[in-house]
Structures are given as C-alpha cells and as structure tokens.
Specification:
heterodimer, A: alpha/beta, 36% helix, B: alpha/beta, two-stranded antiparallel sheet, globular
C-alpha cells in the first residue's frame, strides 16, 4: 500500500500543497472540483509511476486563489509548477475540472504534455446536453450524480451529511470541519467555472492543436457530465481514444479503481 | 431613535400545490400580473401611509426572481415615493452593487431619487443575497471584491469633481461624471445590510456607515452581531453612534396578545413556510473562511427552522402582541442591541391590507410614543445593564 507524502511548494501565486508517492517516470494528476489529493486508482498507479498531485490554489491548504481569475491564470500556474518541479512534458491525468485544466494547457502549449488522460472532463458546453448543476446542491444530491451505486460508502456518508444542509437540514450545530474543505473547493471551482459554467466557449475550436496522445474516459452513468462530452473530446482531439465504463458515474476513480488503473497503465506505458 | 416602516412587497397567493423554493427557480408562470398590479399599488399605499402616521422613514430593498419580495428595482419604487411623500426618509436598503455593471448606474439613480425627494434618500449598499448570484450568474467568488470596488467608484463619483477615469479590476470607466449629483452633501447617509460577515462589520466601522442586521435570526444572534459591530467600531478608535445600527424585525400589534396571534399567525407561517425557503442558498466563494464559522453558528437559529409559535415569540423572530407587550419587548430589545434605528416589517407574508394598516396605526399611536420617550434622539440606546434573563 502506497501512501502519499505532503509537500509544500512555493509558486508565483503562493505556497501550495503537493502530494507525492511512488517512483519511476512522473505522472501528474490534476484533481476535480472536489479537491481530492488521492483515490484508490492513484494509489495503485503510484506502484508504477512517481505520482504528483498538486493541489490547485484555493483548495485545501493551497494559497493564491486571489491571483487566479480563470483558466488563463491556471495555465500559467501549471507552467510555473512544471519549471519548479523540473518537469518537461509529463503525462497528465485530469479528473473533471482537472481535465479541463489539462486541455487549456495542452491547446496552448502542446509541447508541455506527453500524454493526456481525461476522466469525466468538463470544459465544453453542448446545447443538447448541458452539464448538470454542481453548485448549490446538498451532499446527498451530489452523491446522486457522482455515484452509479448509491450504496458506495462515500455516497452513504454524503447522504447522511444532508442532515446539516441548508433548508432541508435540521441540525443546529454545523461542524466547521465538515463544511470547510468542500466549501473551499467549491469556492475555488466557482472562480474558474461559475460563468461561463464549467466551460470555455473557445476550447472546442482549439482542441485540434493538441499533439499528445489522448485517452478519454467516461462513466456511462455520470449524472454531472453526460457521455456526449467524452465523445466530443474524442472526436475533436486528433487521434484520441474513447473508453466508456459501465456501472460507473462521475467519481469513477472511487468506483472502478482497478479498471481505471489498468487503462491508464496500458495507455501511459 | 428613528423608526422606519420596511416593506418587502411579497407575492401573496402562491399556488398551494407548489412546494418548491420561493427563489431563483420558482416558476414565473405562478406570477399573476393582475394580482401583482393590485399588490404594488396596495403596498405603495401602505408605505405612503407611514408618513401620515409619523414614521421617520420607509425602507425598500432589492431581490430578484423570487416570490418573497417583488422589487427587482427598489429604485423604481423609491422614485414613486419621492414624489408621493414629502417628509419621510426613503431608505433603499439597498442596491446590490456587484450586480450593477457599471456601478455608476447606482450613483446616478440614487442621485436622481435624492434630488427629486429634496434630499431624503438613505443610500443602502449591499453585497446581495446568495440567490441573486444564481439569478444573475455574477461570479460569487468575486462578490466582496466587486462590492468594495463598486462602492469606491460610487463614493468617488459623488464626492470628486468629474470627469475622472476609474480603473479597477472589475470596472473600468474612461469618463466618470454623473449628472445629477446628490443634493445631500457630501453624499446621502449610507446603510450597509449584513448577515454576520466579519468583513462587513469592519467595512462599516471603518467608513462610519450604519450596519443593518439582516433579519429572521433569533434575538441572541443579533446580540452577538451588534456586539461584534460595536467592537469593530472600537477597533477603529471610536464608540458606535446608536444611529449606526439598525434592527429589522417583523412587528404585529393588535388590541390584545390573543387577538394579535389570532390575526397574524397564518400570515406569518405563509412567510416562513412558503416565501423563505430558498433564501439561505449560499453560492460558492461568497463567504470568507474567517466569516464561515460565525455564520454557521447562526444557521440553526434561522426562522426557516422554527416550527412553533412559542419559538417565534421566545426567539423574538417577530414581535407580536398588545401595544404594551410589543413596547416592553422593544424597549428591552433595543437597549440590549444598542440599535438607534428600528426597521419594522409591518406587513409580512400574506397579511392583508386592512390588518397591515391597523397594525401600523396601533403601533404609531401606542408603541412609537413610548419608544421615543425611552430613547430620545441623540441619547445612547445601548443598555448592557438592562439585560434580563
């Protein structure tokens, strides 16, 4: 069992958290709106790679959100981070919001990524199938979108958290430690994706510029990002490969860690 | 002390079959414009009646896409009041500055109301409620930044000779030079409504503005908030003037306590159960980490979570009763809060016109004189020793 070690990295925008595990060639993981610093698939991947998980400004203990006004700033933050970490063109795995960030980097600086793995990525808007509402949801409502199987232990806990939530909650003492991480994560996500909502209208037309081999993965039951988003990425990114996993929703890395790990290992090499 | 009649202009007659929130996504097919026509004119009559009864002022406020308060533009209502009243203060509490782009629009419209009314405007400036950020898609993670910047721009527009150039992060205007300028110099009195954010206390204290407590919390929450506000003023090196604080509370006065409850209760529950749901939605990034703990402490003491009449009365969520009961409770409350401005909601929920005006009249004739005798203008209001168990 691999454990991730916490580091702090001074960047241009402030001190950020970085989680690192394993040895071998680097693999950078860009987290989702949830700000996850690991998950079962990453732990398995750390047996094959040196997995680096930078926590984006505003999430968890990472500073510097006040310097971020959108994806343009996120890209410059990643360029700085690559330099600080001595990375030239690492393979990048991006989950949801992190997938969008990887695409913003790879469309502008294709030479800065060697391979791209997208997992339930956002970044586009498709009129025929809008991305579901992420903000203003209770934890239980989020669980309904994020998990294919509501009996998953994390989904169960999220449903229990509804006792503390807004209009429906009746608990009078709301524990700060329960609220703060998710509250910070959504606030930082809003900075990047409140308006336009989780997308960049220019991104689709720029996907053609990506040169890195790209694997696009979607959970067929994703209640947040419809599968057509993955299909569109796969169609527009030159040479991209599409994998749609059954019995998996948005938080596929928690639901299908073995299958995800096998796909990524096979693709990244 | 000064006493204001506050009106939300709620929608009455929301379809009983509808069970969802009254905010943001409440289907606007449920809004009947013919009913709206009656309500707007009725509510204006009630505000104009406040002048006749001797109130010091009236208050209106801004909310969007909801059944709770139908004033997306309180400035339109205030401009009508500017013409139809002649003496009272007109407090717009307030304009949600981050929603105005460019915010010089607020400087212009407020100046118009001030000039038309002959200098009777109180200019309220507010960050805007959580639901407004869903209704406008303005990024809530910039709410405070945009508010501060818009405030700076408006104040400069009122006090510095134009034209000048304003270059901010969110707003850039080559030529700031509003016509008209406000009649009150250097600018109208500024009120800032707040719901417990530390940043707001500090901002109001620093600028010597007035803090208006956003309502529907139990009384102990307000005691804590106004104590924090007094501390913020002390931290700026001065003692808060009573007129720098205002308490907004629903009030209903009838001949006896029993009659007051009998006449009022169903209309209060329409407000709590039908109009409040959805108001607490907190958009991401809207509150700072340091304010979150303070706000969470109050979350369980919000009127939406109240189930019984006894809780309403004990928590002073609404002051309901005979003139004696309401006056006694108000004298104790204002002393404990130290608020020199009382903002009474005399119409709440589905309360009909006849009961609203009866309430206002009884209050003005039997309660207000006692409050004025107890708290003459210019004398301190805060009475920590008056605390009762």
């Amino acid at each position: 069992m691999v454990t991730f070690a916490e580091e702090h990295v001074d960047t241009h925008v402030g001190k950020i958290q970085l989680w690192r595990a394993g040895s071998g060639d680097p693999l950078v993981y860009l987290h989702s709106a949830g700000g996850e610093n690991t998950h079962p698939a990453l732990e398995q991947l750390a047996e094959s790679y040196e997995v680096l998980v930078p926590i984006f400004p505003g999430f968890a203990e990472s500073e510097g959100l006040e310097e971020i006004d959108g994806m343009e700033d996120a890209v410059f933050h990643l360029l700085d981070l690559w330099d600080i970490l001595g990375l030239d063109a690492p393979p990048v795995m991006g989950m949801s919001l992190g997938g969008w960030m990887a695409l913003e980097l790879a469309t502008r600086y294709p030479e800065k990524v060697s391979k791209i793995v997208l997992v339930n990525s956002v970044g586009l808007h498709l009129d025929e199938a809008p991305i579901n509402e992420l903000f203003g949801r209770t934890p239980g409502e989020l669980a309904d979108m994020l998990f294919a199987d509501q009996s998953h232990p994390m989904a169960v806990v999220m449903h229990q958290m509804d006792a503390f939530a807004g209009d429906v909650g009746k608990e009078t003492e709301i524990p700060l430690e329960l609220v703060l991480p998710m509250w910070k994560a959504l606030g930082a996500t809003a900075r990047l994706g409140w308006d336009p909502y989780l997308h960049n209208p220019k991104l689709r037309g720029r996907l053609r510029r990506i040169t890195a081999p790209t694997l696009v993965i979607a959970g067929a039951q994703d209640g947040l990002v419809p599968t057509v988003y993955a299909e569109t990425f796969a169609a527009e990114i030159p040479g991209a490969r599409l994998e749609v996993m059954q019995e998996a929703a948005h938080w596929l890395p928690f639901e299908k860690p073995d299958e995800l790990t096998a796909l990524v290992r096979d693709f990244v090499g | 002390m000064r006493c204001f009649a506050f009106h939300l202009m709620p929608y009455i007659g929301l379809d009983p079959a509808y069970e969802g929130p009254a905010w943001v996504t409440v289907p606007n097919e449920l809004y009947d414009p013919a009913v709206g026509h009656q309500l707007y004119n009725r509510y204006l009559d009630e505000l104009i009646y406040a002048e006749e009864l001797g109130f010091d002022g009236v208050c209106v406020n801004e909310h969007h896409q909801n059944a709770y308060g139908n004033m997306p533009s309180p400035n339109l209502i205030a401009s009508i009041l500017a013409r139809q009243t002649s003496r009272i203060k007109i407090a717009v509490v307030g304009n949600a500055l981050p929603l105005y782009d460019p915010p010089t629009r607020v400087a212009e419209e407020f100046a118009m109301i001030d000039v038309i009314s002959g200098g009777r405007l109180i200019a309220g400036m507010v960050v805007g409620g959580g639901p407004e950020y869903y209704s406008f898609s303005v990024n809530p993670s910039y709410a405070r930044e945009r508010f501060r910047e818009a405030h700076d721009l408006i104040k400069r527009a009122w006090t510095e000779p134009g034209p000048f150039e304003f270059i901010g992060k969110h707003f850039r205007i080559r030529y700031v030079n509003p016509w008209p300028r406000p009649i009150q110099q250097p600018h109208p009195e500024i009120w800032i409504p707040g719901a417990g954010s530390l940043e707001t206390f500090e901002f109001v204290a620093k600028n010597h503005y007035s803090y208006m407590g956003i309502p529907y919390f139990s009384f102990d929450v307000f005691e804590r908030y106004f104590s924090m506000f007094r501390d913020a003023c002390e931290a700026e090196g001065y003692t808060a003037d009573p007129l720098q604080a205002g308490w907004l509370v629903p009030i209903y006065v009838a001949e006896t306590d029993e009659q007051a409850r009998k006449e009022y209760e169903e209309h209060l529950w329409y407000f709590v159960k039908r109009l409040l749901p959805g108001i607490t939605i907190q958009p991401p990034g809207y509150t700072s980490a340091r304010s979150l703990a303070s706000i969470l402490k109050a979350a369980g003491k919000f009127m939406l979570n109240v189930e019984t009449w006894d809780e309403i009365i004990e928590g002073r969520y609404a002051l309901v009763g005979s003139p004696e009961t309401v006056a006694d409770t108000l004298i104790d409350s204002l002393g404990r809060l130290g608020t020199g401005n009382l903002l009474g909601l005399f119409q709440l929920g589905s309360l009909p016109h006849d009961l609203t005006t009866k309430n206002m009249k009884l209050f003005a004739e039997k309660v207000l004189p006692r409050l004025r005798a107890e708290f003459p203008e210019g004398s301190p209001v805060y009475r920590p020793s008056a605390k009762v168990a």
